[in-house]
Design a protein that fits this description.
single chain; Rossmann fold; 6-stranded parallel beta sheet; binds adenosine-5'-diphosphate; binds zinc ion
Length: about 200
Amino acid sequence: MYHGSHPGWIEVIAGVMFSGKSEELIRRVRRAIIARRKVQVFKSHLDSRYTGLYTVSSHDGKELEAAPIDSAAEIFRQARPTTELVAIDEAQFLDPEIVTVASALAARGVRVILAGTDTDFRGEPFGAMGALLAIAESVDKLQAICVVCGDLATRNQRLVDGRPARYESPTILVGGRESYEARCRHCHRVPRKDEDQTALL
Ligand code: ADP
Ligand code: ZN
């Protein structure tokens, strides 16, 4: 947590799916509400987990109202001058302008909290998350539990029909048949086109 005397800074909550990013975002927002701060929560349109587009929901069922947005500029337009905390979930789906928007909000005294998956299904940096990690005052990187071996999970395993998705498949799939598992580095599988079929196991 940042303890400067001027308000206005950036916090990033990063990590794989199921690592508790939404839970942590909701916890911070709830505490700010208890402190009577003026809060606005945004969430990328692309994610519609469980309860539709208008809530931030964690895997344990906790919920918070969120305004759906599909660009960084929209966050900037919708942020009211009196708002003290802007929380953004699923930040990995946003365009690179989110870096400028988060910085501009922080410069005018807003506490900005961004939660997002920092690596894609390949284990590579996702969207603007790398840049956001770099410009943030505070970064928390969370881990889930690997569903294969029980170690700490640091990778998103994409499965299509129960099999690891290939490296070449697109970064963002909306409404597809794919599913995701949290896995550790060693249990994570990303077969490439030129690899032997046994890599799919
Ligand atoms: P994120 O926003 O990072 O996807 P959430 O906050 O939505 O994570 O969900 C975290 C919750 O997911 C945990 O508290 C736990 O109850 C549940 N969960 C389901 N699968 C796993 C897993 N493999 N590892 C850890 N937690 C998991
Ligand atoms: Zn593992």
